[in-house]
């Protein structure tokens, strides 16, 4: 059996500004760095066979801070990248709401209906996560793997574990920066063991 320790990257400057990141990037704040180090301390006694991160700068920085001085192989996988938000990327929440009111409403209230302006749908994100998990099980049979990824990716993973539809994408819990989720993966069966835990940080 595989246990996935899935974390969202630490808080970024654009998170603070409520600015859409998607495939663009923003540096971690001091809080983001501190929270990542705190998670590293929390996981200090957990043995990981590998770390797999989204190739985005914010996730790689988080992964390295959590890893610390431990000799754990760190690789990247593009399928763990955040949803491509197309024309929204780099814009603040208020700018997106003003320029794309219908799409903005669908994003938050009818996610199964959302179609980005030049980006991805939530279903497309979920499909690449399904492929990632399938390929992972074909190469790893047991052990703990640390996954460093993004909020929407984690939300679609929750739906897979719960076997529920995209309309429930934004159901609780909220995915804070560096929050820890643990998923067991066994012959395709996915089970949530811990959900978005933030005991290691100050909110």
Automatic annotation (TrEMBL):
Recorded superkingdom: Bacteria
Pfam families for this protein: His_Phos_1 (PF00300)
InterPro entries to which the protein is assigned, alphabetical: His_Pase_superF_clade-1, His_PPase_superfam, PG/BPGM_mutase_AS, PGM_Phosphatase
Leader peptide range in chain numbering: none
Enzyme active site: 9 (tele-phosphohistidine intermediate), 82 (proton donor/acceptor)
Keywords: Glycolysis, Isomerase
A Gene Ontology molecular function term of the record: phosphatase activity
One GO cellular component, as annotated: cytoplasm
Listed name of the protein: Phosphatase
Source species: Mesobacillus subterraneus
């Amino acid at each position: 059996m595989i246990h996935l320790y899935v974390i969202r990257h630490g808080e970024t400057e654009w998170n603070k500004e409520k600015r859409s990141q998607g495939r663009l990037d923003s540096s971690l704040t001091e809080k983001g760095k501190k929270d990542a180090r705190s998670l590293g301390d929390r996981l200090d006694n957990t043995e990981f066979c590998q770390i797999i991160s989204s190739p985005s700068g914010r996730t790689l920085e988080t992964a390295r801070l959590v890893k610390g001085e431990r000799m754990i192989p760190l690789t990247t996988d593009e399928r763990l990248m955040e949803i491509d938000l197309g024309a929204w990327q780099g814009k603040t929440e208020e700018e997106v709401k003003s320029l794309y009111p219908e799409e903005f409403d669908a994003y938050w209230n009818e996610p199964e209906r959302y179609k980005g302006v030049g980006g991805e749908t939530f279903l497309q994100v979920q499909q690449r996560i399904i492929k990632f998990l399938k390929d992972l099980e074909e190469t790893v049979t047991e052990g703990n793997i640390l996954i460093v990824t993004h909020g929407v990716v984690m939300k679609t993973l929750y739906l897979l574990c719960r076997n529920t539809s995209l309309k429930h994408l934004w159901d609780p819990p909220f995915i804070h920066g560096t929050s820890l989720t643990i998923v067991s993966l066994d012959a395709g069966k996915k089970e949530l063991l811990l959900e978005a835990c933030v005991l290691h940080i100050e909110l």
